[in-house]
Amino acid sequence: MQLPDVPTRIVCAPMAGGPSTPGLAVAVGAAGGLGTLAAGYLNADRFAADLTRMRALTDRPFAVNLFVGGPPAPRTQAVAA
User: Fold this and answer.
1) Short-list 47, 2, 44, CA closest to 20
2) E strand or H helix at 76, and its extent?
3) CA 74/CA 52 separation, integer angstroms
4) Integer angstrom CA distances of residue 34 from 2, 44, 62, 64, 70
5) Are residues 40 and 19 in contact, defined by beta-carbon separation less than 8 angstroms?
6) DSSP readout, the chain?
7) What are phi and psi of 49, to 5 degrees?
8) Residue 1 scores a pLDDT above 70
9) SS3 for 11?
10) 54 near 22, Cβ under 8 Å?
11) What residues does 62 pair with on adjacent strands?
12) What would the pLDDT profile of 9-37 be if each residue is shown by its tens digit?
């Protein structure tokens, strides 16, 4: 992977559900790595707020991790009724 603006080959793993915060991602970026904002369990308002905070705190590159699922499986018993 070529990331010319990331001098240290350290990537902060996205950890959805709490451990990944804008502060952690910014700290990793400040240390020369690639910080990651985990947004898999965030609602749209929280994701927008965290992204705004990241942009305000750093000019370093960072990554965003999202979950993109498919459509829910139909509930066959409910459909049959």
Assistant:
1) 47
2) helix 76-80
3) 36
4) 12, 23, 6, 10, 28
5) no
6) ---TT--S--B----TTTT--HHHHHHHHHTTSBEEEE-TT--HHHHHHHHHHHHHH--S-EEEE-----PPPP-HHHHH-
7) -65, -45
8) no
9) strand
10) yes
11) 35
12) 888 988 888 888 999 999 999 999 999 99
The two three-digit tokens of residue 81, written as one number: 């009724």
Q: Whats the size of the chain, residue-wise?
A: 81
Residue 64, SS3 per DSSP:
strand
- Cα–Cα distance measured from residue 65 to residue 58, given in angstroms and rounded to the nearest whole number: 18
More confident residue, 8 or 63: 63
> Position of tokens 């952690």?
24
Q: What is the chain's mean pLDDT, rounded?
A: 86
Nearest to 24 by CA among 68, 66, 58: 58
Check: CB of residue 38 under 8 Å from CB of residue 14. yes
Note the pTM of the prediction, 2 decimals.
0.75
